[in-house]
Specification:
disordered N terminus; 10 helices; eight-stranded mixed β-sheet; Rossmann fold
């Protein structure tokens, strides 16, 4: 039997520790697959940058930045007179972002290890906040959103992206279902942090309202992941897919072959030409 990660039985502090351990393990994979991830999720990044409406000279904060490309697009907009604060709770992810920022030749970026649930910045100190695919995985997204509202100056904006409903994101939900059906992981509890914990627009708006945001606009943004083979997809998931990646790495060869075979059947309706096109939908929001 493979090792499982039971999110449902964890308290918030346990989940934070798990996220740090998982992030450290997958950071090298995120760096290897960065270009593929950014290509697939470019529509979300572009929507968020447009919604943020940053201006030259602004200070922008990115939470849960990962490899940092969303914030780096904003850094280019705010220019030399502006400042981009690139943060992640994982030191390993911040190191990945630092290398990516250097590749892009950015000199107006400050890199900091920071927990979004306790943002170490002054009140009313930033003009905009970005968070792509981060709030949904936090132990206490309400606390993180309240902290976000605190550090925003009057009139400042938050632009965020989270994943939509599981049935509209087969690129990730099929893998999760396969691991659950195979007994490799327990079914996730609805209230636990997971990729779909903020999938519904009404719930996300309620969280934003509870944090003090009074103007909220949401929109669904489609994305598409492409893979040449199921084996390539499994390699991608093993490198990048959070807790699922840890489970995949712990499998025996027989278990891994069985999962690959099950995924081949599940992906059969998603074949396209010489590979597979796996659709997805993000829920994007801008709030002030």
């Amino acid at each position: 039997m493979t090792t499982s990660i039971d999110q449902g039985s964890m308290d918030r502090e346990q989940w934070r520790r798990t996220i740090l351990e998982v992030a450290a393990a997958v950071a090298p994979g995120w760096e290897r697959w960065r270009a593929r991830i950014e290509e697939a999720t470019a529509p979300v990044r572009e929507w968020m940058i447009e919604g943020l409406a940053a201006r030259a000279g602004d200070t922008v904060l990115e939470l849960a930045a990962g490899a940092g490309d969303t914030g780096f697009d904003a850094a280019e907009i705010v220019g030399e007179r502006g400042r981009m604060v690139c943060t992640d709770v994982s030191p390993e992810m911040v190191a990945v972002a630092r290398r990516r920022g250097a590749e892009r030749g950015l000199r107006n970026v400050e890199y900091r290890v920071m927990d979004a649930e306790g943002i170490a910045l002054e009140t009313d100190s930033v003009d905009g906040v970005l968070c792509r695919f981060g709030f949904m995985l936090m132990a206490d997204p309400a606390a993180a959103l309240a902290q976000t509202r605190r550090v925003l100056r009057p009139g400042g904006r938050l632009a965020l992206g989270v994943w939509g409903a599981p049935e509209r994101n087969p690129w990730i939900s099929i893998l999760g279902r396969t691991l659950v059906e195979g007994g490799h992981v327990p079914p996730p509890e609805p209230a636990s942090p997971n990729p779909f914990s903020m999938a519904h627009a009404d719930g996300t708006r309620a969280l934003l309202a509870g944090a003090g945001f009074t103007s909220v606009r949401t929109e669904e943004v489609p994305v598409r992941f492409t893979f040449g083979t199921v084996e390539e997809y499994v390699s991608y998931a093993t490198d990048t897919a959070g807790p699922a990646a840890i489970v995949l790495r712990s499998m025996s060869e027989d278990e891994r072959r069985a999962v690959t075979s099950q995924l081949e059947q599940a992906f059969s309706s998603l074949s396209a030409g010489c590979g597979y096109e796996l659709p997805g939908v993000a829920l994007a929001a801008v709030a002030s």
